[in-house]
Specification:
The complex is a heterodimer of chains A (261) and B (271). Chain A is of the alpha/beta class and 261 residues long. Chain A has ten helices and nine strands. Chain A has one domain: P-loop containing nucleotide triphosphate hydrolases (Rossmann fold, 3-Layer(aba) Sandwich), CATH 3.40.50.300. In chain A, the strands form two sheets. In chain A, strands 5-6-7-3-8-9 form a six-stranded mixed sheet, sandwiched between helices. A three-stranded antiparallel sheet of chain A has the order 2-1-4, covered by helices on one side. The chains are: A alpha/beta (261), B alpha/beta (271).
């Protein structure tokens, strides 16, 4: 597989403090990578570096022509990102920057409204929307540009679990249809269930990197870093110690059925 | 300090064409020294309820009684720091640019109180010399709590206090709130979506929906109402979900536990 971003031996300092020293990571085109780290692990800096918001010569992008459009970033708190008085105006505003014909743009907006179920929000003031609704609109504003990479920075931390599940489902669907690459920075390991890769970072270094299930086998180490192990993983790895099951589970029903066969 | 809501309603834009009732006939009492969790979807009226307790807004009808006095325009529980409020975004809290000045906003140069407050939230004296903008997200949260504790409020309200905190800081927060409640009998009101966090701190839960109280009572009683919670898209604690699933699928009663280790033992006994 081809990489879409490649960081090679990167050093990064902030206020003369080392944040990253000799840091390397490759992001595969079309993959879904979850990156988790405790508070002050360098996570936020890595978001900025990958998104190209901090320039560094040791980061290479492949097939990225216009970074502003090809890399979309969904932040945790979008309440300050809106300029106009309605969601519709907010969507239309992006036409000027979209470089597409009016027809293509209108089609795209239709798709986005459909995909994210924005019909009922179109004439509302963004400032009056709930957290979950705001995040849906914000995602729409990013997808208008057909980004090749979507970076999420704690994007689900301020919305309800139901809104989060809905959004993740939409993103999964869009990713499948458009081969978008996803890099999700989060505190919640559960968000890596069913994705390609989970990377745990701490103090500017990659501590564990692999398939989510394999990574989560290191639960003691992850716990020691101050990262919460999802309930179902915690439960199944402890039951495994007792010899009641022999694997880690991501799904409660399967777990229950395997314990009481 | 007891807080009682008697048939409280609150309308925005009273008398205007876009008048909107955001709280409807709320009857509640927050007893002294207990820990309450308020949950409900965005737009259910949580923020308005808090604004009413702070006295920033007054009921459109009904009344609120705090410390046996009906709250009116001249009540100053919040201004007089009997009620402390820690917002979701620490940026909304800070009025000064350094930790020292922020902690001294009410108590001035009283270094003893300032250091004591830092100590209570588990931060070292070194923090006194730090600038607010060089603090991490979780430290900002802890400093905003410390600054609130400098004036020893009788009621402490926190909006989504666990948000953005990692496991260690969350555990620290849980311990801190339980401690303050235990030692100083401070009434604590936590507004949060995070049911698992509430489960670890509070004893009472209030669920709001469309400006009304959907349910209120002890944590244990509320979490028993599985179908009500499900119907309203409110999560129950994961540990309880698992216990219920086992009962439903395998007809095995594991019992009721807060801690995973106790649950494991129960599973082991029942295999």
């Amino acid at each position: 597989m081809n990489n879409i971003i490649s960081i090679n031996n990167l050093d990064h300092f902030y206020n003369k403090k080392i944040i990253f020293k000799n840091f390397s990571i490759d992001i595969e085109d079309g993959s879904w990578t979850t990156i988790v780290g405790p508070n002050s692990s360098g996570k936020t800096t890595l978001v900025y570096l990958l998104a190209g918001l901090i320039k560094n010569n040791n980061i290479k992008y492949y097939n990225i022509k216009d970074r502003k459009k090809d890399i979309g970033i969904l932040f945790d708190n979008p309440r300050n990102n809106f300029i106009t008085n309605t969601v519709k105006d907010e969507l239309l505003l992006s036409f000027n920057y979209s470089n597409s014909s009016k027809k293509d743009f209108d089609d795209k907006i239709e798709d986005i409204i459909d995909l994210l179920k924005l019909e009922n929000l179109l004439y509302k003031d963004p400032m009056t929307l709930s957290g979950g609704e705001l995040q849906r609109v914000s995602l729409g504003l990013i997808l208008i540009y057909n980004p090749k990479i979507l970076i999420m920075d704690d994007a689900f931390s301020m919305i309800s679990n139901k809104d989060k599940q809905d959004l993740i489902r939409v993103i999964k669907r869009y990713k499948k249809d458009n081969n978008m690459t996803i890099i999700n920075f989060t505190d919640d390991l559960e968000e890596s269930f069913g994705t390609n890769r989970l990377v745990i970072i701490n103090k500017g270094k990659i501590v564990i990197d692999g398939k989510p299930k394999d990574v989560m086998k290191n639960d003691t180490m992850i716990n020691r870093l101050g990262i919460e192990i999802p309930f179902i993983v915690d439960l199944s790895s402890k039951l495994k110690l007792y010899g009641l099951i022999d694997d880690i589970y991501f799904d409660e029903e399967t777990l229950v059925n395997d314990i009481w066969k | 300090m007891e807080i009682i809501f008697n048939a409280v309603s609150f309308n925005y834009n009273v008398g205007l064409i876009n008048e909107e009732q955001v709280l409807k006939n709320i009857n509640l009492s927050f007893e002294s020294g207990k820990i309450y969790g308020i949950t409900g979807k965005s737009g259910s009226g949580k923020t308005t309820l808090i604004q009413l307790i702070k006295g920033v807004i007054l009921p459109t009808s009904g009344n609120i009684v705090i410390d046996k006095k009906i709250v009116n325009k001249s009540s100053k529980f919040y201004e007089n720091k009997k009620i402390g409020y820690v917002p979701q975004f620490s940026e909304d809290y800070f009025l000064e640019d350094s930790v020292d000045k922020e902690l001294g906003y009410i108590v001035g140069n009283n270094t003893y109180i300032k250091l004591n407050s830092l100590n209570m939230v588990g931060l070292s004296e070194d923090y006194m010399n730090k600038k607010i903008n060089e603090l991490s997200f979780s430290d900002k949260r802890l400093i905003s709590i410390a600054a609130t504790l400098t004036y020893a409020p009788r009621v402490l309200i926190l909006d989504e206090p666990g948000l953005g905190l990692d496991k260690f800081n969350k555990e620290k927060l849980i311990k801190l709130l339980k401690n303050i409640n235990n030692k100083y009998k401070v009434t604590i009101i936590i507004v949060s979506h995070d049911i698992n966090l509430l489960n670890q701190i509070v004893s009472e839960i209030i669920i709001l929906k469309d400006g009304k109280i959907l349910s209120q009572g002890s944590k244990e009683d509320i979490f028993k109402k599985t179908s009500l919670l499900n119907k309203n898209n409110i999560e129950s604690p994961k540990i309880l979900d698992f216990i219920n699933l086992v009962q439903k699928e395998k007809n095995i009663k594991l019992g009721s536990y807060d801690d995973v280790r106790d649950l494991i033992k129960a599973v082991y006994r029942n295999v």
